[in-house]
Amino acid sequence: MYETLTYTGGVHKHEEITELIEDLGGFVLQENISQMDLVLTLAVPMEDVKKVEEKARELLGKIKIAPMAGTEIAIVSPTLARQHLPHSACDISEYLRRYGAKDNMIGLQRGAGKGISRISEDEKKLIEEHDLAIFALGSFKECILNKTHLFEDIEIPVVVTGAPEIDSDIPGATAYVSGLGRIPRRLKRGENIRALKNLVEVTEGILDQKREEMADDPPIVPSILVKTEIEHQLEAIKQVYSPAPVVSQLDGVRVKLKYDQYHDDVAEVVVDEYRLGDISEIRKSMMYEYILVKLLPETSII
Questions:
Q1: Which of 17, 42, 65 is the last residue of a domain?
Q2: Is the domain of 138 the same as that of 232?
Q3: How would you classify residue 45: left for phi > 0, otherwise alpha for psi between -120 and 50, otherwise beta?
Q4: Residue 218 located in a structural domain
Q5: Both 206 and 232 in a single domain?
Q6: Is residue 81 part of a domain?
Q7: Model confidence over 246-287: pLDDT tens digits?
Q8: How far apart are CA 230 and CA 272, in angstroms?
Q9: Which residues, 6+ apart, have CB-to-CB distance to 240 below 8 Å?
Q10: What letter does residue 153 receive in the DSSP assignment?
Q11: Three-state DSSP class for 280?
């Protein structure tokens, strides 16, 4: 089992901590450098966390647990219009990244209006490629309860956010978090920060529950190992300039290469003596025709 961590420190001597992680059999999931500051998202064996903490103190850096690392989250707004997207959805996205999540902003084409809002099948399929979806809705209880058709049949966990307190269950939603409606400013006040922290706790709880369910019939190899092997074995991935050319999910990875051109190469990647095409479903993503790899459970592999 791996623990996901975030290391924050300086660029100077940072290779020492990356070398330690490799020696321990861990992985660097993501690396972000801003001037002289460095943020690493890591996965290390549970029993070796203290060794990483000791090295971080030696380098005057900080280590904290990142339960959302290795997950991909969709943050869905009713539309991309200015009355819906800024600022709550943007601040939710930025806040979740602090806890290790890789998130994508999605604005629905026809989600505005409680009576005319719609979601297309393609939009549903795109959202369902993620581990979890957060629907950032508005400030009125009636409006929120009249938009449940946007997410009630989505097959991944759904967290709905809005301004009012709602005591009853929302059909189709795994959880509801209040205090995050349409706010025409940055979410920097005390009540806003408390609402964001509550959202993080709720989201982490749902992801932990999903991990526990997967533990009963896990993939034959972990997704973080698949990510690492694709990065090492596929030359084309080195030409991708995205900050995260391979995105790890709970049950697979998203590879930012064109499906038609590279899906056969991805299928031939060897992971722990297994051919990736034999232990996963490889399909075309709804996002820019990327490659989506979904690992099959052990019991489904003959």
A1: 65
A2: no
A3: beta
A4: no
A5: no
A6: yes
A7: 999 999 999 999 999 999 999 999 999 999 999 999 999 999
A8: 12
A9: 256, 257
A10: T
A11: strand
Q: Are the C-beta atoms of 100 and 67 separated by less than 8 Å?
A: yes
Report residue 253 CA to chain centroid gap.
11
Distance CA(70)–CA(52), nearest Å, equals: 18
Burial of 151 (0-12, 13-18, 19+ CB in 10 A): buried
Q: Flag whether 137 is in a domain.
A: yes
| CATH code: domain of residue 143 | 3.40.50.360
Per the structure, the complete domain to which residue 40 belongs is given by 2-65
**Cβ contacts of 150 within 8 Å, gap of 6 or more:** 76, 78, 108, 111, 117, 118, 119, 135
- Please give the single-letter amino acid code of residue 199: L
Report pLDDT digits (tens) over 128-168. Answer: 999 999 999 888 888 889 899 999 999 999 999 988 899 88
What's the pTM value of the predicted model, to 2 decimals? Answer: 0.88
Tokens of 169: 């269950």
Q: Is 154 a member of any domain?
A: yes
Could you give the CA distance from residue 247 to residue 224 in angstroms, rounded to a whole number? 9
